[in-house]
Design brief:
- Helix content is 79%, strand content 0%.
- By secondary structure, it is mainly alpha-helical.
- The protein folds into two domains: 105 residues, no CATH class; 118 residues.
- It starts with a helix and ends with a helix.
Length: 225
Amino acid sequence: MNNRKMAVLITDLVFVLLVFSMVYGIVGIVFSSLEIDIVYHLIYNRPNEEYIKIVLQSLMGIILLFLPSIFRKQIQVTFTDGMQIMFVLFLFAAIILGEVQNFYRKFQYWDTLLHTFSGVLLGAFGFSFIDILNDNKEIKIELSAKFVSVFSFCFAITIDTFWEILEFAMDLLMDLNMQQYMLHDGTALIGKAAVFDTMKDLIVDALGALVICIIGYFMIKIRKT
């Protein structure tokens, strides 16, 4: 199986899983709201806000799956099959494993690992985008390795920052505790503890992006020699 077929297969599979996850979340919201004890305790034994997060993130994941095709059709930018596979697997790890299978609670460093990888992935996206522009014969530009590296780093940090803003907005509007400002029993954290998760996410995002941008810088320099 070549990379193109594998990318399509993995994307289709994750799409189906996200649809099922969204249905699972919707049913969970209904059961928890109606307090159907037998079914709820056998199958759905999580707080209502967790099912809301599953629905919202599954919907967001489905939308994000269409981004590569949108880029390809609207701005003629095509990412490699390898990049698409990594992107789709990241969505799988973050939503299906993280939220639906509750890996965020089962494994202490799952969230930190994913945020670090997101920095790496977004930095790589930045490099890929500039590389595509450099290779486009209709766009006569040749960007330096230093500029590409700085752009890719800023691109990754910007997207990660927007994600934290989105989490804050969801917490503010729907009280979902996406930024982990309170414990699972509802106890509100105070001071540094309340912002620790947000700052930790931003720091590991930056470190992941920095590592891939340094690697990318030297790869561009070597390629130009």
